[in-house]
Amino acid sequence: MSAKEPKSKATPGFSTPIGSRRKFFQWVTRAAAGLIGLSLAIPLVGYVISPALKRRDKSWVEVGGVDELTAGEPKQLEYVATIRDGYLEAKTHKAVWAVKQSDGQMSLSRERV
Predict the structure, then answer these.
(1) Which run of H or of E encompasses 88?
(2) CB–CB of 76/96 below 8 Å?
(3) Alpha carbon distance, N-terminus to C-terminus of the chain
(4) In this structure, are residues 98 and 106 in contact, taking their beta carbons and an 8 Å threshold?
(5) CB count, 10 Å around CB of 98?
(6) How far apart are CA 95 and CA 58, in angstroms?
(7) What is the pLDDT of residues 48-77, one digit of tens each?
(8) Where are the alpha helices (DSSP H) in 1-113?
(9) Contacts of 85 (CB under 8 A, 6+ apart)
(10) Dihedral sign, CA of 62, 83, 107, 111?
């Protein structure tokens, strides 16, 4: 080969594509960053959405003692119930009709006030 001849691009032994290693590492870096981002986003979305998917909490409410009731006489017992539904918390006024039987058994009936 003389000094005046142009160098050809297809010289034997130097046929690797230009930039393929760089593109591969860029792809691997983006895939790793995407995987890390996705693995952080899934628990975050679950944390934000989970209260909306929860069922209502039903808790016991003290409305009065059994000794306050007279046998055979119905009595309306009113109370305020706090209902949590997702992010919302609501207070509702409710009432229970209670009748104490002569043998000590209780009969209850609910109604909304």
Answers:
(1) strand 88-100
(2) yes
(3) 104
(4) yes
(5) 19
(6) 16
(7) 888 777 766 667 777 877 777 888 888 888
(8) 20-53
(9) 56
(10) positive
- Spell out the domain ranges in the chain: 18-53, 66-112
| 57, amino acid identity | D
Joined tokens for residue 100: 């104490």
Q: Is 3 helix (H, G, I), strand (E, B) or coil?
A: coil
Contact 72, 93 (CB under 8 A): no
Question: What's the pLDDT score for residue 113?
Answer: 47
Composition of the chain by helix, strand, coil, percent to 5: 35, 30, 40
Count, residues in the chain = 113
User: 3-state class of 63 per DSSP?
Assistant: coil
Q: What is the distance between the alpha carbons of residues 66 and 100, in angstroms, rounded to a whole number?
A: 8
Token pair in block for residue 45: 């979305």
* CA 37 vs CA 41, 43, 82, 84, 106: distances in Å: 6, 11, 38, 32, 58
Positions in the chain whose pLDDT score sits under 50: 113
Give the number of other CB atoms < 10 A from CB of residue 99. Answer: 16
Question: What's this model's pTM, rounded to 2 decimal places?
Answer: 0.40
